[in-house]
Amino acid sequence: MNVREEIEALVEFEGRGPGSDAERRAAEHLVERLRAMGREAETETVDTWPNWALTYAVHALLVIVGSVVSVIVPVIGALLVLLVVVLTFLDAIGMAFTTRKLLGRRSSQNVISREDNDKGGDLYLVAHYDAGRGGLAYHPKLQERRAAFGKLVRRGIGPMEPFFWAMLAVLVCVLVRLTGIDNMLLTVFQFIFTVLLIISLPLLLDTAFASPVPGANDNASGVATVMRLADRFGGELEHFNLNLLLTGSQEGGSLGMRSYLKRRKGDLEPARTVFLNVDEVGRGTIRFSSREGLLLPIESHNQLVDVCEQMVEAKEQEREEQEANDEDGHDEHGRRDRDEDQDDDGDGDGEDERDEDRDDERDDERDDERDDERDEGRDDERDEDRPGVRSMTWRTSTDGYAARSASFPAISITCKARLDYTPGHHQRTDTDDRVDDEALERAYAFIAELVGRLDETVGPDLAKPAEETLLKEES
Q: Which of 37, 73, 336, 456 is deepest in the core (most CB within 10 A)?
């Protein structure tokens, strides 16, 4: 199948935000494509409340009000701020959606394609097909500086963390006021974080009313990749049924994924079910999650992380062996050249000329290579400058995080730039012409190898009782 064509076809459904008509039409298109591939496919309707940005704007406004009130009536201000901080936290970790249920319900769809070959386990390839909204909060400079600061402090900064920590700081201040403390230092400290929330308010409102972005990389690239993997591995795995789950309303907080898991509570067995989440694999270098989550990241399944680490180590060892072989070859070539120089002293001048010609040819080749590198002109780093495949803590709400929250073995695969952020994320420039074919191919090859290794290493173990399989985690 042609991955590029699949991405372009999905991008044509403009405005496919969570719960939109365009999202519904995109789901119908994906069902048709999967059936054309010879797979059974259907949609499953999901009731969602996707307007997270407006929800958090309301929360920010209430905390600002509570902060002001606390100066006059500390008890009322503290209770208001405490309530809102708790509601924000529960919403962010996906435990309880409250305020957003007052802001409108929308119908979304999951696209499901299952195999029923009576095998030992189920392997789900997951990718969301909806597109997120843009806005000033996703301006390239803001994202890049947040990523650079995260690298400086050696800890990634999630997109919602500054907002939540500002709310938490205000809560600390208003609770301190309950003890009777009321000095200038406390007032200044509380004022600073209240101002930060005031600044966040227009950014959240801007996002709430912005149009959905094209979503070529996020996440038409993931959808096309899992479809390609299903085309390759469908019916071919020895120990796993290969299932596709293309989720809707992921941009609203992994709502499609949460609904799928909730409806099948008790039917899916964690000790025999694996979720591989594929998200934004069209630009950058491969990353696999070691931890993920918006505010409190939780560990990805240790067995899945170990398999990914083994793949990385095997590639590194292969590269080192290749470099050692190349060096041995150069050394042998150099010894032969020296021996020839000693045997042909009478032809020294001619040999010198030939050496000079070879040096000139090498210089020309290097110049050509540098010119080719400059001509590539990609937004992402050149291949030779990219850091290698590695794990990362992904501080956002993903479908992989939703599966891990429900105690299922899960891991997320993505591609990131050097600073572990995605160029073009939630921007109008996330178009199909910005998707890198080489990044797509790298992601496909990595996940294909991961699927094969899971079938070879974890698969045979599924014949054991559930409590003894490699996927079983200690409670």
A: 37
